[in-house]
Amino acid sequence: RKLPALKGWKEFQSRPMTDEECERYFSNCYGIALLCGGKKKVTCIDFDLKYDLSKDLFDRYKSKIPKELLKKMYVQKTVSGGYHFVFTCAKMEPNQKLANRRTTAYEKHQTYLENFENPETRDKALKIALNDDRLVLIETRGEGGYFCIAPTPNYEAVHGKIQEISEEEYDTLIEVARSFNEIKE
């Protein structure tokens, strides 16, 4: 899990760190997380491709987004082989799960085995596996969220820089992501 080592990090959602604070907190750290929201209204769309059964979700998503809009994204590869699209926009929302899919029987079985092997969860292994009913393919990190960013180990900058997009462009990114949702409530 990616847990902040910095206690009181939420303070920096409403104000940037000073140079002294950056030096103090990051001079001997493992990685860096970027806080979403704040004055700049940073948003990240997180593509968790390890759960993509088709193996082409990211390419299908990009094919539906205007090339000029794609050029406005900071894109990075994640530790799990997924991608982040990062941008700023006047429109700001909290974290959202945009596209999910049902967990396969094999994945439920793996969840059961992992939990059965752990003495702390053995008695609950079946219940945990049965409740493992969906996996998130695409989600946002918005107001109140954060994500690891290069040069954190195993995160790689691929393209661009963080730029501002319009509210209409934001809506396009979100609507296209939602079009890949396989679970209707």
Instruction: Provide the low-confidence segments as ranges.
Output: none
Instruction: Classify the secondary structure makeup into a structural class.
Output: alpha+beta
**Tell me about the biggest sheet?**
7 strands, mixed
Q: What's the N-to-C terminus distance? A: 28 Å
Order of helices and strands: HEEHHEEEHHEEEEH
Instruction: Please give the count of helices.
Output: 6
Mean pLDDT across every amino acid position: 91
Strand residues, percent = 15-25%
Total E-strand runs: 9
| Radius of gyration (Å) | 18 Å
Tell me roughly what share of residues is in helical segments. 25-40%
Shape: globular
Give structural attributes.
185 residues, alpha+beta, 7-stranded mixed beta sheet, two-stranded antiparallel ribbon
Write a brief structural summary.
With about 180 residues, the protein is of the alpha+beta class. It is built from 6 helices and 9 strands.
Please give a structural write-up:
The chain has 185 residues and is an alpha+beta fold. The chain is built from 6 helices and 9 strands, in the order αββααβββααββββα. Helices cover 28% and strands 25% of the residues. The strands form 2 sheets. Strands 2, 3, 4, 5, 6, 8 and 9 form a 7-stranded mixed β-sheet that branches. A hairpin with a 5-residue loop joins strand 3 (74-77) and strand 4 (83-89). Helix 4 runs antiparallel to helix 5 (125-131). The relative contact order is 0.23.
